[in-house]
């Protein structure tokens, strides 16, 4: 009887675990999906000068010659938080081949972002975006949104919503090689 | 298989631990999803309400990101703060505190996919706890850009 009870407990626990992760994953990335809008592709990525978390000004144009993953995110955005460790891994893997990831935080202030940066051991620059930055990029009206920018400064792709990192990695490798 | 006696507490801890993780995941996935459909209003229906000459116009409050609000928001809507923060909730309570409890109120966010929005559920809970009986949450499936702006619905910018 005790063995049966233990077995039932284990099975129940496993069912709840699987159900919980299934529904979590099912609702993950329920964003709009990949959008390579023709108005964004091949156009020059709008330049900006924004403060990083140390208060220094960072110019997007200073990274010309690199393949850039420009990630609009916020600390309160759960899909964004899930992507960031993957971006850290990508930066580690492809940084010496010319990949530069840049985060544009759409938080209202830098304090939570600094705390997040430390806790998640982010390894790429993060600047504080604003409404004007969002408007420059066609309106950042939901997060996350990521742009891939070629070495010549032109936009290669725009991804709205959380994106499968393998898709991004494939595009990054292609851009690094071209 | 009968486990040795010293393994039984470990098994129980394992089951309890995995169950807790699973339940936490479930809660996370369904935070906004816990709002009953009867308290939701679709964008197209809200637009009809706003355009109608005879319907009571709701007090609309964006309870998400100020940066997103500044870029685009529903004309006439107000911003008080992110409802996922205590400061935002206090501001929301202060804004509606003096209103009659049958006032028509629409709360919305649009920061993220619906099931990941950290703002609408706390806002709904706070306002309902104050006794408001005519509250609707704008159902934004993906984000405000995709489900409102790109549909061509009315938009205002700035603060």
Structure description:
- The complex is a heterodimer of chains A (178) and B (159).
- With 178 residues, chain A is of the alpha/beta class.
- Chain A has 2 domains: 1-30; 32-177, Glutaredoxin, CATH 3.40.30.10.
- Chain A contains 5 helices and 8 strands; from the N terminus they run H-E-E-E-E-H-E-H-E-H-E-E-H.
- With 159 residues, chain B is an alpha/beta fold.
- Helices cover 39% and strands 10% of the residues of chain B.
- Chain B has 6 helices and 5 strands.
- Chain B has helices at residues 8-29, 43-51, 66-71, 86-96, 120-129, 144-147; strands spanning 40-41, 59-62, 78-79, 105-108, 135-138.
- In chain B, strands 1-5-4-2-3 form a 5-stranded parallel β-sheet.
- In chain B, helix 4 crosses helix 5 (120-129).
- The longest helix of chain B has 22 residues, at 8-29.
- The radius of gyration of chain B is 20 Å and the shape is globular.
- Chain A binds chain B through residues 3, 6, 9-10, 12-14, 16-21, 23-24, 26-32, 74, 76-79, 106-108, 129-131, 134-135, 139-143, 160-161, and chain B through 1-3, 8, 11-12, 14-16, 18-19, 21-26, 28-30, 33, 65-68, 70-72, 82, 84, 110-116, 118-119, 141-146, 149, 157-158.
Name the strands of the widest sheet of chain A in spatial order.
1-8-7-4-5-6
Q: CATH fold name of chain B, please?
A: Oxidized Rhodanese, domain 1
Q: Structural class of the helices, strands and pairings of chain B? A: alpha/beta
What Rg of chain A is obtained from the alpha carbons, in whole angstroms? Answer: 19 Å
Most extensive interface between two protein chains, with residue counts: A-B, 42 and 48 residues
Low-confidence stretches of chain A: 21-39
Q: CATH class of the largest domain in chain A, anyone?
A: Alpha Beta
Could you tell me the strand content of chain A as a percent range?
15-25%
Task: Look at the structure and name the CATH superfamily of chain B.
Answer: Rhodanese-like domain
- The backbone outline of chain B, from C-alpha atoms, is globular
């Amino acid at each position: 009887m005790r063995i049966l009870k233990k077995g039932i407990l284990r099975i129940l626990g496993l069912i709840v675990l699987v159900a919980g992760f299934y529904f979590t994953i099912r609702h993950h990335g329920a964003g709009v999906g990949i959008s390579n809008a023709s108005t964004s592709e091949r156009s020059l990525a709008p330049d900006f000068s924004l403060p990083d978390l140390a208060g220094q000004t960072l110019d997007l144009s200073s990274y010309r010659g690199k393949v850039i993953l420009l990630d609009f995110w916020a600390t309160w955005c759960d899909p964004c938080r899930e992507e960031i460790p993957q971006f850290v891994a990508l930066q580690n893997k492809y940084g010496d081949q010319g990949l530069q990831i840049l985060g544009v935080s759409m938080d209202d202030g830098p304090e939570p972002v600094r705390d997040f940066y430390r806790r998640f051991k982010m390894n790429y620059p993060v600047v504080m975006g604003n409404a004007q930055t969002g408007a420059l990029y066609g309106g950042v009206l939901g997060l996350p949104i990521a742009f891939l920018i070629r070495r010549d400064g032109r936009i290669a792709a725009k991804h709205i919503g959380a994106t499968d990192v393998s898709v991004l990695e494939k595009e990054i490798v292609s851009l690094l090689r071209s | 298989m009968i486990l040795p006696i010293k393994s039984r507490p470990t098994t129980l801890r394992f089951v309890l631990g995995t169950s807790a993780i699973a339940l936490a995941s479930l809660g996370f996935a369904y935070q906004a999803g816990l709002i009953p459909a009867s308290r939701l209003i679709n964008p197209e229906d809200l637009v009809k309400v706003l355009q109608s000459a005879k319907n009571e116009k709701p007090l609309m409050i964006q309870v998400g990101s100020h940066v997103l609000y500044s870029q685009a928001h529903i004309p006439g809507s107000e911003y008080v703060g992110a409802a996922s923060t205590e400061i935002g909730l206090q501001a929301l309570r202060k804004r509606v505190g003096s209103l009659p409890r049958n006032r028509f109120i629409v709360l919305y966010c649009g920061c993220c996919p619906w099931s990941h929005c950290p703002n609408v559920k706390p806002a709904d809970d706070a306002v309902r706890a104050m006794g408001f009986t005519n509250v609707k949450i704008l159902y934004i499936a993906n984000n405000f850009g995709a489900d409102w702006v790109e549909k061509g619905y009315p938009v205002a910018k700035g603060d």
